[in-house]
Write a structure and sequence with these properties.
Number of helices: 3
Strand order of the largest sheet: 5-6-7-4-3-8
CATH topology of the largest domain: SH3 type barrels
Number of domains: 2
CATH superfamily of the largest domain: PRC-barrel domain
Strand content: 35-45%
Distance between the termini: 29 Å
Radius of gyration: 19 Å
Shape: elongated
Order of helices and strands: EEEEHEEEHEEHEEEEEE
Structural class: mainly beta
Largest sheet: 6 strands, antiparallel
Helix content: under 10%
CATH architecture of the largest domain: Roll
CATH class of the largest domain: Mainly Beta
C-alpha cells in the first residue's frame, strides 16, 4: 500500500467543502503534522531520453507542490533538475540516476516526503492524508470502520469508509460527502458520521 497523497480539502466543524470553495462558518480543526508519515507527491512512470531523466505522474496539488522539495524517499533521491512537461506531469533528473538504464529501473517508484515537509495550510484547510486511517464512528457512538480514502469529484470531498467488520454480502465501503449534515465533526482521533448517512 502506498502512502497517501497530499491533496487538500476545505472544511467546517460540521463537514467540509471542496478546495477553493468558500469556507463554511466553523472551520475544521487543522490536524497536527505527523512528521514521520510519508506522503506521496509523484510516481515515476518511465525514462525520458538517454541521460537518466524520468517522467513523473503528479499526485496531490501538482507541479508547484512538487518543485519545492529537493529530496525524496528519506533522502535517497536528490533532485538535480525538475521541469513541467506541460501535460500535467513533470520530467526530473536525480543525482543518483546516471543513465537511461537506471532511470528505467525507477519505473513504479513513488516519490514521498515527510508530512511535516508539506506546505502550511490556510484556515479551514486540511490534507486528505490527515483523514486517511482515522476510525469512523456514528453520532450515537457506534464504531463502523475507518477512513480508507478521500476523493473529490468536483462538488465536494467524499470520504470512503471501509466497514469493519465488512459485510459478507453487499457493499464493503461507505461513501459519505464531507458536508455538515453527514460529518458533524472530526479530529485527530476519529471522524464522526451522522447515523442517517450510514443506514
Amino acid at each position: 500500500m502506498n502512502p497517501p497523497s497530499p491533496q487538500r480539502g476545505r472544511g467546517s466543524g460540521s463537514g467540509g467543502a471542496a478546495k477553493n470553495a468558500a469556507p463554511s462558518a466553523s472551520p475544521l480543526p487543522t490536524l497536527p503534522p505527523e512528521g514521520g508519515r510519508a506522503i506521496v507527491l509523484a510516481a515515476v512512470i518511465g525514462a525520458h531520453g538517454v541521460a537518466g531523466e524520468v517522467r513523473l505522474k503528479l499526485l496531490g496539488d501538482g507541479f508547484d507542490a512538487l518543485k519545492v522539495h529537493k529530496t525524496f524517499n528519506d533522502g535517497t533521491l536528490t533532485v538535480s533538475k525538475l521541469r513541467s512537461d506541460n501535460k500535467g506531469g513533470a520530467i526530473a533528473r536525480f543525482a543518483e540516476v546516471p543513465d537511461r538504464t537506471a532511470a528505467e529501473a525507477l519505473r513504479g517508484t513513488v516519490l514521498s516526503v515527510p508530512r511535516d515537509a508539506l506546505a502550511p495550510l490556510e484556515e479551514g484547510e486540511f490534507y486528505h492524508a490527515d483523514l486517511i486511517g482515522l476510525p469512523a464512528i456514528t453520532t450515537d457512538g457506534t464504531a463502523i470502520g475507518h477512513v480508507a480514502d478521500v476523493a473529490n469529484y468536483g462538488a465536494t470531498d467524499i470520504v470512503e469508509i471501509a466497514l469493519d467488520p465488512p459485510p459478507e454480502k453487499g457493499v464493503k465501503t461507505l461513501m459519505v460527502p464531507l458536508i455538515p449534515a453527514a460529518v458533524p465533526e472530526w479530529d485527530e482521533a476519529r471522524l464522526v458520521i451522522a447515523r442517517e448517512f450510514v443506514d
